[in-house]
Amino acid sequence: MRIDGRKNDELRPIKFTHNYTKHALGSVLVEFGETKVLVCANFENAIPKWMEKESKEGWLSAEYSLLPSSTSTRCQRERTKISGRTQEIQRLIGRSLRACLDLEKIQGKTFIIDADVIQADGGTRTASICGAYVALCDMIEKLLTDGLINENPIIEPIGAISAGIVNDEVMVDLCYQEDSNAQVDSNIVLTASGKIVEFQTTAEGLPYQKTQLDEIYEVAKNSIEKIMTLY
Known about the structure:
The chain is an alpha+beta fold. The protein has four helices and nine strands. The chain has helices spanning 84-98, 124-145, 176-180, 210-228, and strands spanning 14-18, 26-32, 35-44, 59-66, 110-119, 158-166, 169-172, 184-191, 196-203. It is globular and about 50 Å long. The two termini are 29 Å apart. 39% of the residues are buried.
């Protein structure tokens, strides 16, 4: 039995609260158990400076932060220098969301995702990706209604979940205590059809078997399918 009484393949209670803030075009409070992340989506009528001006594509970028009191010990705001962990998570969110977009359909525009962790209890990056997808869809709907884009650029829905091996057993949606004691730690991002966007799986100690890797994929796929029904 797990710490909170769940089965190994059982998700924590998940909730998406749409239109959580007033000013963002898309805003969602996403909750995975005690993990809570506010995700906002906005856009600019410009593309990054590193892209060619004549590019036929737009772009999507992401920013991620842990708010100071989101963890049991107050963390410092990253005002002048972003930590390696934050950079890695921002890139993960950005890559994941770009994988579900036809960037040619947002030519000349940059979609911007802001994910701020209000309360952290494991799985903040995967919760951020799920919330980002929902916020992105809400923003796109408004852009279409206002005639600011002509076509829906979403190719296929995506979802994400954490998983791992704890006490020699494959478990999904790890809380912080489980994650901090995991033998194997995974963050999985999949499309609705089961294609892999990201499959980050790392042994924290001894190596693991391919059969366990396959089991992690299956439990993640089933879980992401359930999450997508809540979008």
